[in-house]
Amino acid sequence: MAEKKPAWKGTTGGGNFGQKALFFLFRCVNIRVGYAILAFIIPFYLLFSRKAYLAIKDYLKHNGFTRHLVYHVYKNHFLFGQMMMDRFYIFARKKNIFKSRITDWDEFTRLLNGSGGFIISGAHVGNFEICGYFMQQDLKKLNAVVFGGESAFIQANRARALSGNMADLIPVSADMSHLFVIKSALENGDIVSMPCDRLFGSTKSFTVPFLGSPAQFPMGAFMMAAQLGVPMVSLYVMKEPGLMYHTICKTVEVDRSQYKTSRDIARALCQNYVRQLEEVVKAYPHQWFNFYKFWDN
Question: Which of 62, 138, 169, 264 has its CA 20 to 30 A from that of 76?
Answer without folding.
Answer: 169
